[in-house]
Amino acid sequence: MKLATFKTALLTTSITLALVGFSAVSHAQPNITTNAFLAAAATQASSPVCDSSECEAEMRRLIRLARNGSGDAAALVAMAFASGDGLEQDDKEAERFIRIGVRYRSAIATFLMSDWYRNGFILEQNEEEADNLLEQAVALNHPPALYQKATQLFASDNPEDFEEAMTLLQQASDENLVNAMFLLGRMRQIGAGVEQDLVEAGELYRKLIIAGVDDARPYLREVTEDLEAIGANDQTIARFASTQNIERISVTGSAFRVNTQLTGIVRRLNASGLYDSRSIGSRIRGVTCEQSGSQCTVTRPSSEASSLSDIVGNN
């Protein structure tokens, strides 16, 4: 993979992982884990995805949010520094911001730092640190971490690890993580280590297709044929068959998509009111004045705010 392409994929991955941490987005459609998204981005990207003035402005806002206590913002800034996409490439700044994110208990930052230690990227390779951080990310219920830990346990020679692996895999699938949904669907379809359940497998594939994951289509077709062969419920078969006919039209470029996602992330962090250093009454980063117990007021975005500038201007 060319360096420029890898950097582009890297930042796009950070945005994707960040979106997993925002429930309003993570339940809208499945999210792709690091390796799968890198592969997908590598086939499409040949230029930076964050090369607009709007994107650069959002990066500056993310730096401010990170300094005011947002670990998720710090994770995104770290990835931008690491890739050189959106911010000038700087390994030291990347390490500084990823550590800030972990210090603020960001699941995103914790998982990314684990990955960096495991692969010797930015940080010196350290498997022990990688495993410790992965456990922390699992404890924070970060879907990609749940999936990675599950796959590690599946590879273990200890049969007792299987039950824990299944629990983690189910949790990641419930959070709409693509790889987890695929793996769980396949296991249910063929009865690998679990009781065969064609209907549940089909429902997982159906969700993936609706979300635009076309790789699930042949698997749903197999499930539909198997259900027809055993005379299963006609309504279930019809629902699965109709899903296979759904066409997905994509007209959005990767750069525009990332810029839009960045704007959405900044908007959510700003709207939370947690990371405004100008809030009256509390000087603790990441703590609102209401949470501090002091008599104070916080300026929040009004219900009439309809743009990023409205929200930022009201903070």
Automatic annotation (TrEMBL):
<dbReference type="InterPro" id="IPR006597">
    <property type="entry name" value="Sel1-like"/>
</dbReference>
<feature type="signal peptide">
    <location>
        <begin position="1"/>
        <end position="28"/>
    </location>
</feature>
<protein>
    <recommendedName>
        <fullName>Sel1 repeat family protein</fullName>
    </recommendedName>
</protein>
<dbReference type="InterPro" id="IPR011990">
    <property type="entry name" value="TPR-like_helical_dom_sf"/>
</dbReference>
<keyword id="KW-0732">Signal</keyword>
<dbReference type="Pfam" id="PF08238">
    <property type="entry name" value="Sel1"/>
</dbReference>
<dbReference type="InterPro" id="IPR050767">
    <property type="entry name" value="Sel1_AlgK"/>
</dbReference>
<feature type="region of interest" description="Disordered">
    <location>
        <begin position="295"/>
        <end position="315"/>
    </location>
</feature>
